[in-house]
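Predict structure. Chain length: 393.
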Amino acid sequence: MTTVSLSVERVDDEIRAMRMDYVQTHAEEIYDSLTAGRAKYLRIDELVRAAAVAYPGLVPTDEQMAAERSRPQAEKAGREIDQGIFLRGILRAPKAGQHLLDAMLRPTTRALQLLPEFVESGVVQMEAVRLERRDGVAYVTLCRDDCLNAEDVEQVDDMETAVDLALLDPSVRVGMVRGGEMTHPRYLGRRVFCAGINLKKLSSGDIPLVDFLLRRELGYIHKIVRGVFTGDSWHSPFVDKPWLAAVDSFAIGGGAQLLLVFDHVVAASDAYFSLPAAKEGIIPGASNFRLSRITGPRVARQVILGGRQIRADEPDARLLVDEVVAPGEMDVAISRALASLDADAVRANRRMLNLAEEPPDEFRRYMAEFALQQALRIYGEDVISKVGRFGAG
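Prediction complete.
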């Protein structure tokens, strides 16, 4: 590295340190000015765009981000790090951060537009997800059959839409997520739950911080935990329902992360689970926040730091799933589990369990730091090198 590049890097660090101090000091004031005193609910993408206009130099402009999106990850200028600094400061602020979480829990515009069609027909087919209502159950099927349900921006958008519709439709009492049958040659005709983040798209620069890495955590995954924020009833401002996951073949990375928020998980005996964070070099979403609570700290470190793979037929798998059955018995086990979740008392008790196990303020503080640390990780030289080799392969 040349003397000039070292000097530029030091200047960038100094500017970013100043940005962090400024946002941390003035977060509540900044947020109130952007949301008219918290009268407007802006999603994170809307918030960073509004901040770019109202506070020039604080976050990248639309033009700068458009230029970034046109480049592969290795050639980007790292402007998302500045978005991470900004969102860290906002999420750390108690009033602003909670309001932003509520904004992300509100139904999306797309879901509200599709809701009448879904209520009437009971079916919505999207590119990455199929949603079907039968006998009070919303069946969410991951149907990226060519890439083993690897996650990208389209899948996150479709999943949030499906979760919103399932929660908003009064005829739905329980939600279920399962992978569909694959056309991928290695798993032809077999169901697969999820292969995690699409590393080829990360290498090509198509896995953004705001619209993927943060949206999936603060959007549909958090909605499975808390429900959608509607404010319609004094009983609760949220509409929430029980959720079941059914795992065929494997749940890798983001797929394994999902299992940590479901009320009941059924897995085929030949399935396995892994969080290859050390291999990929990135942070596995909110798993660092949730996994220790579920498995204990030693297993969590083995999985996240050491890349340990857990098979469904080994004892520690029972820390991640509720039932392990033979592949041919999955449908029967799923039906039995769905029936057990379909009770008003289940809904009330899961709400109280989630409040006790995942207090909103603790989640907010975790996500504040995640916003920055994940932004730094996706521009780490080790990550760019690893995903570049994967993309080339």
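Summary: The chain is about 55% helix and 10% strand.
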